[in-house]
């Protein structure tokens, strides 16, 4: 079967070879644990049951998870083991199951998610991705994903090409996010403030791309208003191939971040999450030590 999980359309059989994403049909994981530092309505008090998939269909030069996205650290597990991991996280008190970078498994996940729900997994499933998604693959997840947590990284494709190695990022992510919203509708928080249905779109502010950030936020607010959350991230730290990079080799300035946040406020948004400057630390990147996987 030719892989159709992501818009790369490699045209290969994942049962036999790896594609651009670096993985075969087998699930490859690097960590599964209770993550305390996702957005408050995702981590809650108990932590988000985060499952880190190895491999990726993008090549972001600043990737904070590059050991697993490009370095492919991790171990292959069976579908049944993935199912067990979901229940282990639930039993540890996870607020949800948070699938991190699942895009390259999008066509395979419906099977395991259906089994999880049929076996009584009763916490929300969060799909946490780069936004670079295949709409048809997303349609196969309808009814199985409760909360979508995509990035919208760039507005102008020239930046997507330069920093993430992908053409047509904006039009692809825009269509994917529209499909995600079609599935979830406006967000719903439970009585403890945990998101049980809906969408949070993340945007990581990058040095010298303030205009791009504002165009992203404008698009989101004009399209979805206050029916979604926008998470404006201040945690950029030069990592991976961005270290020493002419434009991305520096931290985000406080004035640039303030200017983007002020712009979001000027749009009239009420559901906007922001981060303080202490989030600019690589200590927010977990160790990919296979914890919870084996
Ligand atoms: S998921 Fe991987 S193999 Fe499939 S189309 Fe995308 S990059 Fe290629």
UniProtKB/TrEMBL annotation:
Binding-site positions, [4Fe-4S] cluster: 56, 60, 63
Cofactor: [4Fe-4S] cluster
CDD domains on file: Radical_SAM
GO MF term set: catalytic activity; iron-sulfur cluster binding; metal ion binding
Protein name: Iron-sulfur protein
Gene3D superfamilies xref list: Aldolase class I
KW Metal-binding (keyword) present: yes
Cofactor mode of binding and number, as noted: Binds 1 [4Fe-4S] cluster. The cluster is coordinated with 3 cysteines and an exchangeable S-adenosyl-L-methionine.
Residue ranges of domain Radical SAM core in the record: 51-180
SUPFAM superfamilies cross-referenced by the UniProt entry: Radical SAM enzymes
Pfam families with a match to the protein in the record: Radical_SAM
Alphabetized InterPro entries for the sequence: Aldolase_TIM, MJ0674-like, Pyrv-formate_lyase-activ_prd, rSAM, rSAM_sf
Keywords: Iron, Iron-sulfur, Metal-binding, S-adenosyl-L-methionine
